Amino acid sequence: MSSRAVAARPLRRVAVASAVGTTIEWYDYFIYSTATALVFNKVFFTSLSPASGTLAAFATLGVGFLARPVGGILWGHFGDRVGRKAMLVLSLLLMGFATVGVGLLPTYSAIGVWAPILLLVLRLLQGLSAGGEWGGAALMAVEHAPEDRRGRYGAFSQIGVPAGLILAQLMFFVLGRSMTDAQFASWGWRVPFLASIVLVGVGLVIRLRIEESPVFARLRDEEERSSRPMVEVLRERPRALLVASGSFVANTAIGYIFLAYLLSYGTSVLKINRTTLLVVVIVGSVTWLVSILASAAWSDRAGRKPVYLAGSVLLVLWPIPFFLLVDTKATGWLLVAVIVLNIGLGATYGPQSALFAELFEPRYRYSGASFSYAVGAVLGGGFAPLIATALQTSTGTSLSVSLYLVAVALLSLVAVLFIPRGHSRSSRTAAAIRS
């Protein structure tokens, strides 16, 4: 066997660990989002009207995002001080604990106001975990990869988002086909949360077998680790933080409209069959996954910035046609709407791991990448479903939601324009990854 083939073994193992681990993490995160859209207003907020209950349920979804910057700072600090691998294992354990906890949580009718309070606490724990999970998985993949394949291997941490969404939607689809609405509302919604314990076990086994990032190992061996990584990021790379955070706002806002709000809007306002919508979301998620892989590979050849620009322009242009097609309630047009949308989402997500790694020095890279990702998620996706629900309820039209998404997409487009010129060709920035 050639030395190249032998050297590829740990890289493939890291790529698989990044993909499987983030898939499990985001499965946990997305079953919460899906359950929020479908059932939480009826289970934990029964004292409120249906519309108010939906708003309150989406508010708990948004609160989880507020914990993500804290998680980004926390996991980032120890990821830069202790190591990438240890943080990946701990974040997965925390997410699993919180998710299974939701599955075991008594309803409002059983324990009253404590039900939504405990739900909020568990959601905050999910947010803390998600705040550091992505940074660790992304850097493990990118820092192990050859210089000319940073985008391609970094995409393995990215595909965990649509893959986790597909897994979550398939779970709810199977439940929807195998039980009545009354059974699902009574106990069926708990099954995806409780099943997480098995998936977390699988993820832990895989993550415990991978090697530490060679970049971090070098920093540790040469005693070049930062003692205050977040402070250094703020002092030395404030522009990089702004660019990275801003570039992610549209992706996460529009992404959560697709994965959370579309289900609620489609079932409660348009009265589309829930199973039909789940199938549409699954098709869109598959498109998202393929688009991530294609755009990441493209960024290794053309550079990160051109790929980001193409995706960002599409996200500016598509929200209005998206809702016009969705409002037809025709399955064919629904599919067209989500397929085109997810091509744009993939183009602004596939190269992200490599881009964020290239923007920050190795000694504080985990902190910079995680914090930027978390802040972008808060500003974009944190309250996007809640804002969309409030806009549609107050105006009675989806056009207000479309215009909101266009405004968010324009903000990210401006941030993308400020990506440093060197990132227009990946070959010029390969040296930035090296320690």
Note down, in words, how this protein is organized.
The chain is mainly alpha-helical and 435 residues long. The protein has a single domain (11-220, 229-419), classed as Up-down Bundle (Growth Hormone, Chain: A), CATH 1.20.1250. Helices cover 82% and strands 0% of the residues. The chain is built from 22 helices and no strands. Helix 2 crosses helix 5 and helix 5 packs antiparallel against helix 6. It is globular, with a radius of gyration of 21 Å. The two termini are 29 Å apart. InterPro entries: MFS, MFS_dom, MFS_trans_sf, Sugar_transporter_CS. It is a multi-pass membrane protein. Belongs to the major facilitator superfamily. Metabolite:H+ Symporter (MHS) family (TC 2.A.1.6) family. It holds the Pfam family MFS_1. May be a proton symporter involved in the uptake of osmolytes such as proline and glycine betaine.
Describe the secondary structure blueprint for this structure.
Elements: H1 3-43, H2 50-81, H3 84-104, H4 108-111, H5 114-144, H6 150-158, H7 160-178, H8 181-186, H9 191-194, H10 196-208, H11 214-221, H12 229-236, H13 238-269, H14 274-302, H15 304-317, H16 319-326, H17 331-347, H18 352-359, H19 365-380, H20 384-395, H21 399-417, H22 426-429
Helix pairs in contact: 1-2, 1-3, 1-5, 1-6, 1-7, 1-10, 1-13, 2-3, 2-5, 2-19, 2-20, 3-5, 3-10, 5-6, 5-19, 6-14, 6-18, 7-14, 12-19, 13-14, 13-17, 13-19, 13-20, 13-21, 14-15, 14-17, 15-17, 15-21, 16-17, 16-21, 18-19, 20-21
Keywords: Cell membrane, Membrane, Symport, Transmembrane, Transmembrane helix, Transport
GO molecular function: symporter activity
Subcellular location: Cell membrane
